[in-house]
Amino acid sequence: MSETGLVKQLIRSLTCLPGVGPKSAQRMAFHLLQHDRSGGQHLSQVLQQAMVQIRHCESCRTLTEQTRCELCQHPGRDDSVLCVVESPADVWVIEQSTAFKGRYFVLHGHLSPIDGIGPDELGFDILEHKLASADLKEVILATNATVESEATAHLIAEMSQKQHIKATRIAHGVPMGGELEYIDSNTLIHAFKGRQTL
């Protein structure tokens, strides 16, 4: 059975999503066309609006429809603590799963000289200004556990210490419910380095 031009375009367009290959895209496309046209139309409308109206918060650089996001506008947040993350998705995860009530700064990536991503691309100039002008007592580095992310965290820690601000790193280690025999050696190294007194 040959597909029409629009069906091919729809399938190809869906493959732009992370983790969606041609087969998954094909299943999604046929599901929308055969079983949920109203859902597909709603999706296209919301997607169009989101692409036009969502921008970066001028303060923390997360995604928002406003000039400043709701978290930055919230008067009850702790201005003395700044959590630095790699992506807006990280902000969502932290907000949903912790009791963190401080402020955020989103890097939109990590240092990667081979890809041409340096301090300028990550907004280090904005972060440096924030560190110098805000009344911060602690910067929490909640970047990923990769070599590039560790280097990024190290550089931000140095920037913080120059401003006499305590820099802390979220712990990386054995997950809740995890068994040691199945944990890789790098994770165990981090777990031992980040051990705490009981």
Structure write-up:
With 198 residues, this protein is of the alpha/beta class. It is 45% helix and 13% strand. It folds into two domains: 5-53, Helicase, Ruva Protein, domain 3, CATH 1.10.8; 77-179 and 186-191, Dna Topoisomerase Vi A Subunit, Chain: A, domain 2 (3-Layer(aba) Sandwich), CATH 3.40.1360. A four-stranded parallel beta sheet has the order 4-3-5-6. A two-stranded antiparallel ribbon has the order 1-2. Helix 1 crosses helix 2 (22-35) and helix 2 (22-35) packs across helix 3 (37-53). The protein is globular. The mean pLDDT is 91.
- How many H/I helices? 8
**What is the CATH architecture descriptor of the largest domain?**
3-Layer(aba) Sandwich
Tally of DSSP β-strands: 6
Count of all domains: 2
What number is the mean pLDDT? 91
- Named CATH topology of the largest domain: Dna Topoisomerase Vi A Subunit, Chain: A, domain 2
Q: Hey, roughly how much beta strand do the residues contain?
A: 5-15%
Low-confidence stretches: none
Largest sheet: 4 strands, parallel
Query: What structural class results from the helix and strand content?
Result: alpha/beta
- Amount of helix: 40-55%
The global form is globular
Q: Please give the alpha-carbon distance between the first and last residues.
A: 65 Å
- Whole-number radius of gyration? 21 Å
What is the level 1 CATH name of the largest domain? Alpha Beta
Order of strands in the sheet with the most strands? Answer: 4-3-5-6
Order of helices and strands: HHHEEHEHEHEHEH
